[in-house]
Amino acid sequence: MTLLGELYEREPPIPPEEYVRIGYSELKAFVTSIFRAVGLSSEDAEVVSDVLVAADLMGISSHGVQRVRRYVDGILRCCVNPRPNIRVVRDRGAVALVDADGGLGHLAGVRAMEIALRKTEVYGVSLVLVRNSQHYGIAGYYALKAAERGYIGISSTNSEPLVAYVNTVGRTLGTNPIAVAIPRREPPPILFDAATAVVPVGKIELYSKLGRKVPEGWVIGEDGSVLAGDAVGVLEEIRKGRAAILPLGGLGEEFGGHKGSGLALVVDIICGVLSGAAWGVHVGYTVGTKPANVGHAFSAIDVESFIPREEFYERLEKYVLEIKSLRKHPSADRVWLPGEKAWLTSQTRLKIGIPIHKRVCRELNEIASDVGLGERLPCGT
Amino acid sequence: MTLLGELYEREPPIPPEEYVRIGYSELKAFVTSIFRAVGLSSEDAEVVSDVLVAADLMGISSHGVQRVRRYVDGILRCCVNPRPNIRVVRDRGAVALVDADGGLGHLAGVRAMEIALRKTEVYGVSLVLVRNSQHYGIAGYYALKAAERGYIGISSTNSEPLVAYVNTVGRTLGTNPIAVAIPRREPPPILFDAATAVVPVGKIELYSKLGRKVPEGWVIGEDGSVLAGDAVGVLEEIRKGRAAILPLGGLGEEFGGHKGSGLALVVDIICGVLSGAAWGVHVGYTVGTKPANVGHAFSAIDVESFIPREEFYERLEKYVLEIKSLRKHPSADRVWLPGEKAWLTSQTRLKIGIPIHKRVCRELNEIASDVGLGERLPCGT
């Protein structure tokens, strides 16, 4: 089944009158200008912009340009370093440790994955950890960098506490995502990119905008009671720090809440404890009173160290075809591969532009004005 | 909080009169004799027995000696090779590919993890894949081998199809577990060991024995309807191939079913597609008409390549203490670390013996008799 001709969007602009569509190149150049204006080098500004706009392209707007304000504030107030001296502090065989010097995670992320790719070329596999970093955007971006080179890429990070540890209340763990990208003969690559929480907070934001109800099993309050229903109210409790997102697997152990929170813990121990970064409740927010000290992990696996490339692709295409031929559940619209929705959305948006909420669009213009830029996005009326 | 003095068991023998307690050494020697009698070398028989009895020690009886029949039948009928020539078929830097020659997965697993540990000593990280193998028991066993050496260990495998891919019906994926073991200054190590399915089939077996009801969200029928209630009936549907276990995250995407099945798919692509083993519906059962061609993956991470060991331990103990100090959910009995229940159960059972269901005990005696052994376990009346 090919969907190349379709204009699919995983997160369509609803209601349409609240959005404008902005061309990929225009949006990227605009965001690049902003980061240059707040002190990043031209090259670094382009890297950060590329990661953010990629998220919008893929329909993950929660991690897209709506976060520019947060990163800019972190630079202008505290404690993001706009000109980090990103250094390899340990290097041994197939592993390395990178110190991000308090710069944006996107910069250290791209650099660390490049190191991982070079090491994988020599050793077949690699692991590069990063400490003293900041939020790095979508985990999948870095994993895809490996897949573009024909490797299997893995990327993970810890993040500020939003998620309850199993059998407890309150926020202890980040949404600590895991991304794995697997190259195919033709795009799209398989891209698994998932928070180890039951949902990302961005999904609850989306529900609140759409007037949808939060189901029981996503969020718990301080007293351990399930928070559900009106998404606006649930979101407010989360924003006020009075509620936590549940781990993948939900409340308690009956449906595997110990698995989701166990995965999040393992991610945190590797990205945070082992790297020398912060962990758990100590991981900071981008705008704060001290450096966030986020930690990341990057790995790449050389396919050809195990099997001839063409044989791998042939086997994988057989598997993909088998999955696509499975009998659909009566309640499902389609059988999807991991990353397929994101890729189709990207293709659509490269053609017809990226829907940006007018509020976000105006906010970007305000930021541009604040930092002394003359250019403006066309945000409509 | 230390529980060293308590006799904790995660899976207590219920009802007690259906069980006998057998000493660890006695059980292990008995099972070793059986595998020697069906053609394994003394050394190999001891390895297989050690993995199986370890599962019973840890309270994972679904993967313990109750599976001896299955493995023995695979050897005597088809298609387990009792004297495999386990070979490294590819070896490059930090990676290797092992061909298990159709032998029991425990043998290839222990061998492959040993190779991974040697490579990690040199390169800081490693990845060893295995093809042409059989069921390897509990994933955590191999990860723990790395933790015993002071490394972080990772182990994963594919397995025969029992789990539905998200938005589809029928069995496509194995329960494809992921295990990660993290060493601590003092035992127990942290041991995350979880199927990527919402539950292992062993849990439904346990519920059927205890007369408990299967909750909605574990199992779906061929028509996509939720199967719940009477566990005996649900188990029968699974055994007849008319029902599938749901992935972690459950039915559809609302609670993350795409995450659980995505993780299972990624495990299968690395363990199966990349290694040259079978994948998805092609992975065989231990007793069949052709070799199961199971695939595994093993990795180890050298802590000291990233951080001085004592610093790692100190940071980790702080994190552990923070988790243990979290406010308990009103419905929870205790805040557990991954692997803590298994470790406490092991300590208990090393002292007072391993509870073996009398039916399983008699079955072991029958197998011993069948293969010409004189010794018998004391199975009570």
Structure description:
The structure is a homodimer of 381-residue chains. Chain A is an alpha+beta fold. Chain A has two domains: 16-198 and 246-308 and 340-370, Malate/L-lactate/L-sulpholactate dehydrogenase, NADPH binding domain (Ribosomal Protein S8, Chain: A, domain 1), CATH 3.30.1370; 199-245, Wheat Germ Agglutinin (Isolectin 2), domain 1 (2-Layer Sandwich), CATH 3.30.60. The first copy, chain A, has eleven helices and twelve strands. In chain A, the strands form three sheets. Chain A has a seven-stranded mixed beta sheet, sandwiched between helices. A three-stranded antiparallel beta sheet of chain A has the order 9-8-10. Chains A and B meet through strand 4, strand 6, strand 7, strand 8 and helix 8 of A and strand 4, strand 6, strand 7, strand 8 and helix 8 of B.
